Q: What sequence folds into this?
């Protein structure tokens, strides 16, 4: 569907209506827009059918990747990691050089430096299987948020990106996920935009995909320059999303439209 179907006027009127309710006051830079009590998982914005599919492991297509990941993990990783539970809660995290280590990057590191095997390609089957299995093994647990995350350069970079108006539609991430959530735009219910469901199976992709891929889809939707998968801004944003989620538990593999 053409991105132009949004209609700039529709968006503008939705935003004006939101502002008029006064529900979202001007927040200081390092404050969250959405009160902790109002934080809602992306699943709650999906249809009953999709929610049922996600909840039932026999129906959830993402479980195919979980099963493959379990096998790979047993083969290559259990020498050093006896238990997969909780590993994914530690990612994304800050590297000592100030960059963000995502789950994919950590696996890349262990795979090449410790298992001593060639790296897996981004968005390739083995890497998706491992990330999905690890996220699944932390299902119900919250990702760890560093105590002074808002003072980190990575947080600041991501915050600038999250709030930067860009693209042909003059949008930023915040317009959709802090202000328009719960509204129906372009035939999709907009959620609060957290990463805890990813890797997720998307009906639109007919495939499971990473959070990195989802984020690039959002840039595409904004009709702006879509960053390359390896662009560090995407890792920064993943880190920032953990802070935004305020302890929402991991629910991967989620099912999404
Ligand atoms: C024009 C509206 C719009 C903008 C702007 C936008 N997104 Fe999205 N985003 C969506 C839609 C639609 C979806 C799919 C439905 C949903 O979960 O919200 C989505 C999904 C997501 C999800 C997955 C949520 C889930 O639970 O499955 C994340 C994370 C996300 N967006 C982050 C971002 C970030 C970061 C930016 C800025 C770089 C951004 N979005 C900009 C519309 C937008
Ligand atoms: C030879 C030992 C070794 C092997 C094999 C190994 N790892 Fe690791 N892994 C580590 C160590 C040590 C850390 C601690 C953080 C660091 O130094 O990178 C770690 C950290 C991690 C983390 C972050 C969680 C944490 O506790 O820091 C994940 C996720 C992870 N490894 C995944 C994997 C996966 C997936 C494989 C198999 C493909 C694997 N590892 C194989 C040693 C290993």
A:
């Amino acid at each position: 569907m053409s991105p132009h179907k949004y209609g700039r006027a529709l968006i503008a009127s939705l935003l004006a209506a939101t502002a008029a309710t006064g529900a979202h006051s001007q927040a200081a830079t390092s404050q969250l827009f959405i009160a902790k009590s109002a934080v809602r998982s992306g699943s709650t914005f999906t249809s009953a059918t999709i929610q049922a599919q996600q909840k039932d492991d026999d129906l959830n297509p993402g479980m195919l990747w979980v099963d493959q990941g379990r096998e790979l993990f047993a083969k290559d990783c259990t020498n050093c990691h006896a238990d997969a539970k909780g590993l994914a809660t530690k990612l994304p995290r800050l590297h000592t050089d100030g960059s963000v280590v995502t789950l994919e990057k950590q696996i890349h590191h262990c795979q090449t430096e410790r298992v001593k095997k060639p790296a897996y390609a981004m968005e390739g089957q083995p890497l998706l299987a491992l990330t999905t299995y690890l996220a699944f093994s932390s299902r119900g647990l919250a990702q760890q948020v560093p105590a002074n995350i808002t003072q980190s350069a990575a947080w600041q970079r991501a915050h600038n990106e999250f709030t930067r108006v860009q693209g042909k539609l003059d949008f930023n991430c915040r317009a959709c996920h802090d202000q328009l959530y719960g509204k129906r735009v372009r035939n999709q219910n907009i959620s609060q935009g957290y990463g805890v469901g990813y890797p997720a199976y998307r009906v639109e992709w007919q495939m499971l995909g990473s959070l990195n891929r989802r984020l690039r889809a959002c840039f595409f939707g904004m009709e702006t320059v879509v960053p390359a998968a390896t662009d560090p801004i995407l890792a920064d944003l993943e880190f920032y999303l953990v802070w935004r989620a305020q302890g929402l538990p991991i629910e991967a593999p989620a099912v999404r439209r």
Q: What stands out?
A: The chain has one domain: 41-256. Residues 41-256 form a domain with the Cytochrome Bc1 Complex; Chain D, domain 2 fold (CATH 1.10.760.10). Residues 8-21 form the longest helix (14 residues). The pocket of heme C (ligand 1) is lined by residues 42, 45, 162, 171, 173, 175-177, 188, 190-191, 193-195, 197, 200, 214-215, 218-219, 221-222, 237, 241, 256 (CB under 6 Å).
